[in-house]
Amino acid sequence: MKKKIITLLFVFAVINIFGQAPTTPKSGNPNSNNKILPPNEIVTNKVITPLKKVALDQALILIYDYDGSLFSFDLESEQIGWTVKATDAYTEMCANAVTLLDGVIYVPFINGEIFAIDNQTGKPFWKTRLGNITDQIVLKDQIPVISGGKLYITSQNGNIYALDTKDGSLIWNYKLDSANNDIPVLSFDNKVFTQSGSNFYSLDANTGKLIYQKTFEQPLHGKPVTDGENVFIANEKNVIFALSPNKPDILWEFKFDENQNNVKERIFCKDKKVYFAAQGPEVSSIYALDSKAGTQLWKTDFKGDNVEYIVEESDNIWGYTRKKKLFQIDITNGEIALEAKLTTNPISNLEFANDDFLFYYSDAALIQFEFKTQDENEVYLRTSIKDDVYSAYVKMIR
Residue 117's beta-bridge partner residues? Predict the structure, then answer.
């Protein structure tokens, strides 16, 4: 009896604090390996209004500022439209990215909250919270991965979660090897792939059932990517592994320069090739590999600098370095097509608007970079500048 009273008190406390009710996995036979979630891992959700598709307001660009606020900015009127913030983040920090689907923006906050909001108004359809932690980061370096009506995300409380995109409720969760998980997951072939510590997981996307778990000698610290056939991931040192999606077989491994590491999210696949950037104390390099054989096709070095970000755009690799150099590389041969020494310091992704310019966020402003003139135009200017900012994210509504 005493145990039941304590349980009820905890449930009421959660509802009281967050205005949300705890949810349990929807499946009658969940594959979670921790079916009874402790308070710091429990999922609570609240539906404000039924989810629906929303027309896109294509005059807007989303700015997930490094202070942790997400707002829309009208590029025509140059006015802020709406602003959304976490309920109680203990520090001002972005550290995550957003996903836009059918006019709905899915945004994770560092305190473990995830909102689904209307791109036109900023009003939420639902709010979900992962755990009850209020004094540390719960979600970091995450972008909601959405497939088949489910939102997949990993957390700093040691779990991967699958949420229902309709209402934010829990479908399944799985307890991972490490508490600290700061790499986005991969959804592919009705499976979800993620790394945690020295382990790599393949999970059934619908149920969360473990398909396989493989343990490596070194911790894995790269985003899993796929060429549509196999899965590729980097360890924290200097190895890229090719894995089967169905069984824990290493198909090949590629060792790059032993003085380089830290691939993290700087990796992607295209046309049966794997492209990644590795950092080093003296030289940072971008590599191209054949995804079938694991052989090197080309390598481009950046001496005395480190590549911070890369992305594929129109058969080119774009990115920037720690020393504020913007570059464009021909994806077929690794030759540098453009280099520009920036006066502003990029801290976000690169968002390509059209054939004439792109956007990025700096510590001071939203910048429009013009390809032809290489001008850096300040589109939105912050009222204050902070030191040691972590990251920001920008996304055009389209």
Answer: 105, 124
**What is the rounded distance in angstroms from the CA atom of residue 244 to the CA atom of residue 317?**
26
Contact in structure between 75 and 61 (CB atoms under 8 Å) = yes
Torsion of CA 22, 23, 24, 26, to 10 degrees: 170
270 burial level (CB within 10 Å; 0-12, 13-18, 19+): middle
- Strand ranges of the sheet holding 239-243, from the earlier edge strand across to the other edge: 225-226, 231-234, 239-243, 250-255
The pTM assigned to this predicted structure is: 0.93
**Contact status, residue 48 vs residue 121, Cβ threshold 8 Å:** no
pLDDT of residue 15: 45
Return the percent helix, strand and coil in the chain, to nearest 5. Answer: 5, 45, 50
Read off the amino acid at residue 164.
Answer: D
Q: Give the three-class secondary structure for 16.
A: helix
- Tokens 């996903």: give the residue: 99
Q: Report residue 182: phi and psi, to 5°.
A: -130, 35
Using the predicted structure, report yes or no on whether residue 197 has a pLDDT greater than 60.
Answer: yes
Q: What is the rounded average pLDDT for all residues in the chain?
A: 92
Q: Answer whether 349's CB lies under 8 Å from 184's CB.
A: no
Residue 207 gets the label, from left (phi > 0), alpha (psi -120 to 50) or beta, of: alpha
